[in-house]
Specification:
By secondary structure, this protein is of the alpha/beta class. The chain has helices spanning 3-9, 50-63, 74-82, 99-111, 124-130, 153-162, 175-178, 213-226, 232-242, 245-263, 283-289, 304-313, 343-348, 365-377; strands at 67-71, 90-94, 115-119, 135-141, 166-170, 188-191, 206-210, 269-273, 296-301, 318-319, 329-331, 355-359. The protein has two domains: 3-242, Type I PLP-dependent aspartate aminotransferase-like (Major domain) (Aspartate Aminotransferase, domain 2); 246-377, Aspartate Aminotransferase, domain 1 (Alpha-Beta Complex), CATH 3.90.1150.10.
Length: 379
């Protein structure tokens, strides 16, 4: 079945006899049993809820997985995946990650005794040098946040398989519409569903998707035990949002490419980071492993003063955290997404006072360019 059709029709699970086109919201914490040792298949919504079950089945189909778990946030998904590991276990992570993931690894995960090494994940020698006898997983994000580095997922999967590691891929920026890491050898795919999968900046959610039944069983046990599950109404919002995922991703990508090319012509903009530009260092990898380039980009102004001026002067583009919604958002990573990372580490990655991150929405590209022109050049 075509991806666009799955987006609209979700899963083949049906719960309603009235013919309702919209999936019902089962706003119930608990479910009555027909009798002793008998169940409707649902007992308590922390374990499973029909609305969430429908959403999870749809996401699993879109990612090509056997199971998907829907969480209350993207970070809840990452945190639960970390529960697969025991004190003393070592994880290699790509060295350009969302700041929230780094904060989780450096604090709650480290307090549990997990150890992390950040590595250039698109360099085999760097990965090999990070290996220890205790290494259990490789965690990558591609494209990365906010520098838009692209990791070769198939090569990472080959490395992980050769060393008996789980490969975890954060696929938030691309969604399964453009990139399907499980088909490239990943074991677990993570999403902050708050972003493109939701697409309307109106709810928080996260997903973990797997192919392996044994891994699904382990995650499901942790899921019901810890309880970071997505609520029924939020699940329904995601079901609604998925119907337009393909349309939104195409429109946003088209706008992002146009804005990236325009930014390249601006004297006050010194660098543009977008995988869809042929001059991007991993452009060929992007073309090989994905069907598109997404709608996220970052760019560096000539001075911090110019960067701050852009944030102060944008009118249509909103200065706000998050990404992936139909509204274009601009973010200052130094003060927002990566504020908890020590300054020297941030700047070594290029996350300095000149860098801005842009999530491109579905507005008219002409209007977005006019807004940026005003913000950058005062016109």
């Amino acid at each position: 079945m075509d991806f666009r059709t799955i987006c609209v029709h979700g899963s083949d699970k049906r719960y309603d006899v009235t013919g309702a086109v919209s999936v019902p919201i089962f706003q119930s914490a608990t479910f009555a049993h027909p009798g002793v040792n008998r169940s409707t298949g649902y007992d308590y919504s922390r374990t499973q809820n029909p609305t969430r079950e429908y959403l999870e089945a749809a996401i699993a189909r879109l990612e090509g997985g056997s199971d998907a778990l829907a969480f209350s946030s993207g970070m809840a998904a990452v945190a639960l995946v970390m529960e697969l590991f025991s004190p003393g276990d070592h994880i290699i992570a790509s060295d350009d990650l969302y700041g929230g993931s780094i904060r989780l690894f450096a604090n709650p995960s480290a307090a549990r005794g997990l150890k992390f090494t950040y590595s250039d994940a698109y360099d085999a020698a760097s990965l090999a040098s990070a290996l220890t006898p205790a290494t259990k997983a490789l965690f990558i994000e591609t494209p990365s946040n906010p520098m838009m580095h692209v990791v070769d997922i198939a090569a990472a999967a080959e490395f992980a398989s050769a060393h008996g590691l789980l490969l975890v891929v954060d696929n938030t920026f691309m969604t399964p519409y453009f990139q399907r890491p499980l088909e490239l050898g990943a074991d677990i795919v993570i999403h902050s569903g708050t972003k493109y999968l939701c697409g309307h900046n109106d709810t928080l959610c996260g997903f973990a998707v797997v192919k392996d039944a044994g891994l699904s069983e382990r995650l499901r046990f942790l899921f019901k035990t810890i309880g970071p599950c997505l609520a029924p109404f939020d699940s329904w919002l995601l079901i609604r949002s998925l119907k337009t995922l393909a349309l939104r991703m195409e429109a946003q990508q088209s706008n992002a490419r146009e804005l990236a090319e325009w930014l390249l012509t601006q004297p006050k903009i010194k660098a543009v980071h977008y995988p869809g530009l042929p001059e991007h260092p991993q452009y060929d990898i992007s073309r090989r492993q994905a069907s598109g380039f997404g709608a996220m980009l970052s760019f560096s102004a000539d001075t911090p003063e110019t960067a701050v001026g852009i944030l102060e002067r944008v009118r249509l583009i909103l200065y706000a955290e998050s990404l992936g919604g139909v509204e274009s958002l601009i973010t200052y990573p130094m003060l927002q997404t990566h504020a908890d990372i020590p300054e020297a580490e941030r700047e070594a990655k290029g996350i300095d006072g000149c860098l801005l991150r842009l999530s491109v929405g579905i507005e008219s590209p002409d209007d977005l360019i006019a807004d940026l022109d005003h913000a950058i050049n005062g016109r």
